[in-house]
User: What shape does this take?
Amino acid sequence: MEHQVIGTVLPVLEMKLDPGESVVAESGELSWMTASIQLETAASGKGGAKGVFGALKRSVGGSSFFMTEYTAQGAPGMVAFATHMPGQILPVEVSAEREYMVHRSGYLCGLPTVELSIGFQQKLGAGLFGGAGFILQKVGGTGTAWIELDGEIVDYQLAEGESLRVHPGHVGMFEAGVAFELDRIKGIKNMVFGADGIFLARLTGPGHVWLQTLPLPKLAQSLLPYLPQPADGESKSSSLLGNLIDTATS
Assistant: This one.
């Protein structure tokens, strides 16, 4: 199996598979593939999920309920997965001694022996991330996984006891051995007027940490003033859908 990342700002991961080789991704991640690639979609048995309950736990972690396995049948084949956001694609080697915690939409694909599950979930309130809370995926098992991080990647190797306080949206990935906790920002004025949310993530070593410079919530907040506003009596979702339809048909 060979892979290459093509592009810079909006890269795509191209996987070249020999006959019988497979790669597993969340449903809906496919960008393109050759004729020899056969796909099989299932809720359990893919991505390490054991039964429907395992698939439900994985979906709570930000993944899709269904996973799709892409296999080259009878001849070599190629399958490609593009990023959703401007960013980078990072391959990591997973083992029993080296597991990773990844932001909720960071898992792109992996070998069939890689396991994906929920790693952390905490409700942070409607004022942060639209009320969705802070969720991390846990990438375990064995083999290679490919992770999508948004924007540029800044990584740190934390020493024993060394801590880094990070806006939660900038947490891209870290080794599972890194201690993780949420710190409430102190001071009423800081919480109300600081516009940085009310929590910071505290990452404490030893271990490797990868931060991302373009969190999706911050990008959405930056784009909000430029989006069409709903008319009186019209919901935001219907207004936006109407504008998208007009754009697509014009």
Observations:
- Residues 2-229 form a domain with the Double-stranded beta-helix fold (CATH 3.60.160.10).
